């Protein structure tokens, strides 16, 4: 179906982006292909070694209602439980959030920080792309006509690791992030030193941003305010925000620092258990 | 609830279930867009993409040629502006000039909504785009682009010499403010600004019309006032009032925004042209861009006191955006800004100013919240300067019976002092506020409330129940509050009264449901109708009891003969007289005048400000308000809470956000941020009851005063939490961050 109709066809997951965009005339869609009947696209499987695979169309609420997943991947739950509202979460999928490829998509920094991979199927076969390479611009990504995202896989969380996601919005729900961020840190066994870190930020560039320099600023360093401040500066340096009705350049720069610090601190707390 | 000597009512003050409740919670109630008629066509409006542009030519040929299109109308079909209602037609369909983005230009009726939209896109308009004027102070400057080159300012000394965007300058002066300031020990002076905001009702405007070949026109609309809507349609269409019937549907919120007509005359014209019923419903963008929000303002104010805490002098220069045409009046601000206090020397200059934005309309206590935003912050600062408790400062200067009130008229029984006493005694005010970045703020607010004209009819049923026939659309629970007043008057249980809101052919004239007037004014009409029922029943009873009519007495729901030998309850007598005799209907009609005594509201609010993000969290909020007599206390509390929540949204996040071309870029509820349930705490309420001498049961309007204090109360709280005064709305995180960074 997707291959036959090419650009005129769109995958329908929860429809919480697609149907609205079609109705408002922002997207011309001749054919919608509902993928919720494909088992692989709605799976939620936690392997014995702790690795996780979620179907691209698995709803946010299915994810956070799974106790084992919630325990092992709290940052994913941070994201899944604040997209929209309870009603939206019952339909909205992480795959849809990623494929919509909005610069402010609230699951994308988390997927990047957790080192997730996208499993794509199409007429030319299957391929795997790291999440940080998936989005290529506002509403644009690496999917070719005829391709669909099938699932997203997450490596098992390392020992002594923790991750946290936060976003800033003027209200307390139903809003688009002014800035969002996710930090995933691994600590030494004594919990005093950073041994690995992945940090990603959103709404401050044409795509959600993976900031390797921010993680690098932590690795090998003691857990301290001074170390964390360095990571925040690195994240701020990578951000190239714009001024619009939702926030100004200065405000967004400032908030990157605030959110990266807050998420690192929260991730450290989670890593220490 | 606080009560000062109230009579022992049986029904008034209880909390019965509303008669329209079941239909509303089960989805059966019929709202504007629920009207569907056989053979109905769908209408769609063509709107201006420009904020300010001359319309050189409109070509509708392609639209008319599209299969399925049955009628197209433009300003040419409307005829000239009615003389008595200037600019009314021009706002319905623009003829020679579009004055704001979203200004309606033409309309189409077609067999489907989709075809109507496609046809609207096919209408070609040739534009000459002009520079827009978007800032109220810039629009006042000589040399600003003029929206209407023929407009001269109405001033106290006649029309201005030069054409101007300033529609009117209202000047109010009591005493000699200039001189009095020189005698003050403490003076505070600031400049404030607020942005245009929308009422934010959930239900978009929708209207349906049938124009019969015999000239009978029926219009269904979710209007706030069926009778004024009929009047306006009559004037715009040049069609007799008595040939137009307006049927009010349920209304999903209005707050002043559904007083004006927009779609009604247009669907009527489309129906006349097509010979079919036509319905048109706005979408959210239409509602934001094409209806009437409330003005943004620029206010310069100065307040002075002597060191003993006596307020001596107030000066304010109040400039209100009117939008494309004269709209919601700045003059209302002059009636409210000083009305809570006894200030001898007052000088106010209020300006209504045209800008290239939608024609403004009233919004809950129109003009008063922005004025209180200025005034009540100055009072807060003055208290700090004088080292006084701000509530004591307000109490010391509060108006009393006889103090000069709105339009210079003396207050009769103002409830401000009692609200302040209750605030000072409240658990909230007496609780400590601990923790960093937190602050408490307070503010008072006044709204004058209006009376206007109302009618109601009462039919007595054969079983002794009564039918109450109303012409005031029910927005805030007035079927219940009016049925309760009738039950009290007739001495029967509330459940015996069945209220119905009917169309304009089925009851006497009623002004709009606005100005907090229905429970007051339509209440007076209802009570009068009830008294007329008693009179008629007494007259019919006298011969059967074989006593002169003067000897039939009625008290507490019981008819009695003077000698005590005969008696019967209302129900027994009604069954006997109406059950077997001819039917009985009685009516009441009143003109309750313009002012109805006014109402005071007061707010105490605790906030926490996140110093890193600038986000303000409302921790606790108490609204204290004088209801005169609370007929149905739950609905009074609901009005107080609703006003508080809308005020919180206005204070913190809501604004029309324009780009330089005059396009509102946040015309959806995603980016026009009204508060969600997670953004507000439970609003605590304290009802004060200082009976209104102008109403038989002491009622005062309660719908509006509650939105007046919150803007200032929150600004005061933020100032106390951060040490920085907030003089501009909205106090969104970005503004708080920008004004407090480095602190
Ligand atoms: C009221 C409301 C509130 C919202 N709040 C938030 C929020 O707080 N944060 C946030 O980030 N988003 C928010 N959203 C946006 C939306 O809910 C999310 O982006 C959601 O995750 C989208 O998932 P979906 O399953 O509904 O996607 P859909 O709408 O079904 O699809 C989205 C896009 O991705 C494509 N697509 C979907 N699945 C695939 C696939 N498997 N392969 C290829 N392409 C695919 C679709 O064709 C479409 O273009 C909100 C939306 C609404 C209506």
Written overview of the protein:
The complex is a heterodimer of chains A (273) and B (743). With 273 residues, chain A is an alpha+beta fold. Chain A is built from 11 helices and 13 strands. In chain A, the strands form 4 sheets. A 5-stranded antiparallel β-sheet of chain A has the order 3-4-9-5-6, with no helix packed on it. A 4-stranded antiparallel β-sheet of chain A has the order 10-11-12-13. In chain A, strands 1-2 form a two-stranded parallel sheet. In chain A, helix 10 packs across helix 11. The longest helix of chain A has 24 residues, at 249-272. The termini of chain A are far apart. The longest helix of chain B is centred in the C-terminal third of the chain and has 28 residues, at 518-545. The mean pLDDT of chain B is 96. Classes of the chains: A alpha+beta (273), B alpha+beta (743). Residues 10-18, 20, 35, 56-57, 82-84, 88, 91-93, 95-97, 99-100, 105-106, 143, 148-149, 174 of chain A line the site of flavin-adenine dinucleotide.
């Amino acid at each position: 179906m997707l291959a036959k109709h090419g650009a005129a066809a769109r995958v329908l997951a929860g429809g919480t982006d697609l149907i609205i965009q079609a109705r408002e005339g922002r997207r011309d869609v001749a054919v919608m292909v509902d993928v919720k009947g494909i088992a692989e696209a709605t799976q939620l499987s936690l392997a014995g070694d702790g690795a996780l695979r979620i179907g691209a169309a698995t709803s946010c609420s299915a994810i956070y209602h799974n106790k084992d997943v919630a325990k092992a991947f709290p940052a994913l739950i941070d994201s899944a439980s604040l997209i929209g509202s309870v009603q939206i979460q019952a339909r909205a999928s992480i795959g849809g959030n990623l494929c919509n490829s909005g610069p402010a998509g609230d699951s994308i920094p988390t997927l990047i920080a957790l080192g997730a991979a996208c499993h794509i199927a199409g007429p030319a076969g299957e391929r795997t792309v790291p999440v940080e390479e998936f989005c290529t611009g506002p509403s644009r990504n690496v999917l070719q006509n005829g391709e669909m995202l099938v699932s997203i896989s997450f490596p098992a969380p390392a020992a002594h690791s923790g991750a946290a996601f936060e976003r800033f919005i003027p209200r307390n729900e139903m809003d688009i992030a002014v800035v969002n961020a996710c930090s995933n840190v691994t600590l030494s066994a004594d919990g005093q030193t950073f041994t690995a870190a992945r940090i990603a930020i959103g709404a401050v560039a044409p795509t959600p941003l993976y900031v390797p320099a921010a993680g690098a600023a932590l690795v090998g360093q003691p857990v301290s305010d001074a170390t964390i401040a360095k990571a925040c500066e690195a994240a701020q340096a990578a951000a190239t925000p714009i001024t619009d009705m939702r926030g100004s350049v200065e405000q967004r720069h400032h908030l990157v620092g605030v959110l990266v610090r807050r998420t690192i601190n929260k991730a450290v707390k989670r890593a220490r258990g | 609830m606080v009560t000062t000597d109230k009579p022992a009512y049986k029904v008034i003050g209880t909390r019965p279930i509303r008669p329209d409740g079941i239909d509303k919670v089960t989805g059966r109630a019929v709202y504007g867009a629920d009207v569907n008629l056989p053979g109905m066509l769908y209408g769609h409006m063509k709107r201006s993409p420009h904020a300010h542009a001359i319309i050189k030519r409109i070509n509708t040929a392609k639209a008319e040629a599209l299969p399925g299109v049955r009628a197209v109308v433009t300003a040419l079909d409307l005829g000239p502006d009615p003389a008595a209602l200037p600019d009314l037609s021009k706002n319905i369909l623009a003829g020679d000039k579009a004055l704001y983005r979203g200004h309606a230009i033409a309309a189409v009726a077609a067999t489907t909504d989709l075809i109507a939209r496609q046809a609207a896109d096919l209408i070609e308009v040739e534009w000459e785009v002009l520079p827009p004027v978007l800032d109220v102070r810039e629009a006042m400057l000589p040399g600003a682009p003029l929206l209407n080159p023929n407009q001269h300012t109405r001033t106290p000394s006649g029309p201005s010499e030069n054409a101007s965007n300033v529609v009117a300058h209202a000047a109010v002066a009591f005493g000699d403010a200039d001189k009095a300031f020189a005698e003050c020990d403490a003076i505070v002076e600031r400049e404030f600004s607020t942005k245009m905001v929308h009422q934010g009702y959930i239900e978009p405007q929708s209207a349906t019309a049938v124009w019969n070949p015999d000239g009978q026109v029926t219009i269904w609309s979710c209007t706030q006032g069926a009778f004024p809507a009929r009047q306006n349609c009559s004037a715009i269409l040049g069609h007799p009032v008595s040939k137009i019937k307006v049927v009010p549907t349920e209304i999903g919120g209005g707050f002043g925004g559904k007083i004006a007509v927009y779609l009604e005359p247009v669907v009527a014209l489309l129906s006349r042209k097509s010979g079919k019923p036509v319905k048109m419903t706005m979408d959210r963008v239409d509602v934001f861009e094409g209806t009437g929000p409330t003005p943004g303002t620029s206010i310069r104010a100065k307040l002075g006191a002597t060191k003993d805490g006596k307020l001596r002098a107030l000066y304010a220069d109040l400039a209100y955006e009117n939008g494309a045409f004269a709209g919601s009046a700045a003059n209302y601000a002059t009636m409210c800004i000083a009305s809570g206090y006894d200030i001898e020397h007052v000088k106010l200059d209020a300006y209504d100013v045209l800008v290239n934005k939608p024609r403004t309309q009233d919004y809950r206590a129109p003009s008063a919240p922005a004025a209180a935003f200025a005034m009540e912050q100055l009072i807060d600062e003055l208290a700090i300067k004088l080292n006084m408790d701000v509530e004591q400062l307000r109490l010391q200067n509060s108006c009393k019976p006889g103090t000069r009130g709105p339009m210079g008229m003396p207050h009769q029984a103002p409830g401000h002092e009692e609200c302040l006493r209750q605030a000072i005694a409240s658990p909230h005010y007496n609780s400590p506020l601990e923790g960093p970045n937190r602050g408490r703020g307070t503010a008072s607010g006044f709204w004058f409330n209006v009376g206007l004209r109302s009618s109601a009819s009462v039919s007595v049923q054969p079983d002794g129940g009564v039918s109450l026939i109303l012409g005031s659309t029910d927005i805030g629970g007035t079927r219940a509050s009016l049925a309760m007043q009738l039950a009290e008057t007739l001495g029967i249980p509330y459940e015996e009264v069945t209220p119905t809101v009917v169309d304009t052919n089925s009851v006497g004239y009623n002004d709009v449901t606005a100005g907090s007037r229905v429970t007051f004014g339509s209440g007076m009409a209802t009570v009068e109708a009830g008294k007329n029922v008693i009179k008629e029943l007494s007259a019919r009873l006298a011969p059967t009891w074989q006593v002169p009519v003067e000897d039939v007495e009625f008290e507490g729901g019981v008819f009695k003969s003077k000698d005590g030998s005969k008696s019967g309850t209302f129900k027994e007598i009604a069954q006997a007289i109406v059950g077997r005799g001819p039917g009985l209907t009685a009516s009441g009609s009143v003109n309750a005048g313009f002012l109805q005594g006014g109402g005071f509201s007061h707010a105490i609010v605790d906030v926490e400000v996140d110093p890193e993000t600038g986000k303000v969290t409302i921790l606790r909020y108490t609204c204290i308000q004088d209801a005169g007599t609370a007929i149905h206390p739950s609905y009074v509390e609901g009005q107080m809470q609703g006003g508080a929540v809308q005020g919180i949204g206005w204070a913190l996040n809501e604004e029309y956000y324009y780009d330089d071309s005059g396009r509102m870029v946040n015309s959806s509820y995603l980016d026009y941020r009204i508060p969600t349930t997670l953004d507000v705490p439970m609003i605590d309420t304290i009802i004060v009851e200082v009976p209104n001498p102008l109403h038989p049961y002491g009622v005062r309007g309660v719908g509006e005063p509650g939105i007046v204090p919150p803007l200032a109360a929150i600004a005061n709280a933020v100032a106390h939490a951060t040490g920085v005064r907030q003089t501009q709305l909205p106090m969104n995180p970005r503004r708080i961050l920008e004004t407090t960074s480095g602190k």
